[in-house]
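RECORD TYPE: protein structure
NAME: Nucleotide-diphosphate-sugar epimerase
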Amino acid sequence: MTQILVTGATGNVGREVVTQLVSAGVPVRAFVRDALTTRLPEGVEIAAGDLSEPETLERALSGITTVFLVWPFLTSEGAPAVLATIAGSARRLVYLSSSGVDDNAERQTDPIYRLHADMESLITASGLEWTILRADTIASNALGWAGQIRQDGVVRGPDIAPTAVVHQADVAAVAARVLTGDGHVGARYVLTGPQVVSRADQVRMIGEAIGRPLRFEKVPVETARERMLADGRPPALVEALLASTRRPRSDLITSTVEEITGRPARTFREWAADHAADFR
Ligand SMILES: NC(=O)c1ccc[n+]([C@@H]2O[C@H](COP(=O)([O-])OP(=O)(O)OC[C@H]3O[C@@H](n4cnc5c(N)ncnc54)[C@H](OP(=O)(O)O)[C@@H]3O)[C@@H](O)[C@H]2O)c1
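PREDICTED:
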C-alpha cells in the first residue's frame, strides 16, 4: 500500500484522518509545522514543513502519490504554488472544502465559502486526480466553547443559523475511504450530519452529555467583533467568522457519509458524548 501525505494532521479533521488510516493499516506521512511537539499515533512518519513555504512541501512529497489537503488560510493566494508542487510529485488529491460552495454563484459573498470555491477552481484545473469533500459545519468547532462551559455553564457568542453539523470522525472516515479506494476521482461529496441543529441545541446536548444544564446566550455581532479583536484575533479572521452569522439556515441533509463508509452519520448528541471529557 502506498503512503499517504496528510496535511493539517494536528487539526480536528486531519488528526482523525491520520488515526483512521493508521487503524486501517495504511502508511501515513503527516505534514506538520512543529515536528518536535507533535504527537501522532505510532508508526506515522512526520515531515516538518509549512504550506506557506512550498519548498518544505516538496521535500515531504518524496515517494507520495496521494495527498489529503486542508487549507488553513483565508485566501487562496498561495495555493497555485502549493498545487503545482503537489502535481509535480503526486497524482491524487483529496481536498477538504465546504458545503457552502455554490456551483451556481458567480462570486460568493461569504469569505470562507469564496475561499473554498476559489480553491476548488484551482484544484480542478491542476491536472491532479481530485476528489472534493464539501463538509457542513464541523462539530469540533464546539470545542471552542469548553472554557466558557467549564467556567459558568453559559456559552456566549454570535448566533449562527442551524445546519446539519457533521462529526469530524465521519468526515475523516469518508476521507480515508476516498484516499484509499477507487471510483472517487472527479467527485464532489457533500458531507452533513443526520440532523439540523442550532447552537442552542448543541450547547444543550453537551450539557446532557456532561450532566449539567448549559445554555447558549446570543451576543450581538458588534459585541462579538469587539471581543474577538480585543482577544487579538486578526481583523480579516474576525470578519470571516462573523460573516457566518449572515448565512441562511440550511436544511440540507445528505446520505453520503453512509453511502461511502457503510455506517450512518453520527448525531451531534453522539459527538457530545464522545467529547464529554473535553467539557468537564
Ligand atoms: N470548521 C468547519 O466547520 C469547517 C467546515 C468545512 C470545511 N472546513 C475546512 O476544514 C479545515 C480543517 O478544519 P479543522 O477543524 O481540522 O481545522 P484545525 O483544527 O484548525 O486544523 C488546522 C490544521 O492546519 C494546520 N496549519 C495551520 N497553518 C498551517 C500552515 N501554514 N502550514 C501547514 N499547516 C498549517 C494546523 O497545524 P498547527 O497544529 O501547526 O496549527 C492544523 O493541523 C479548515 O481549515 C477549513 O478549511 C472547516
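COMMENT: The two ends are 41 Å apart (CA to CA).
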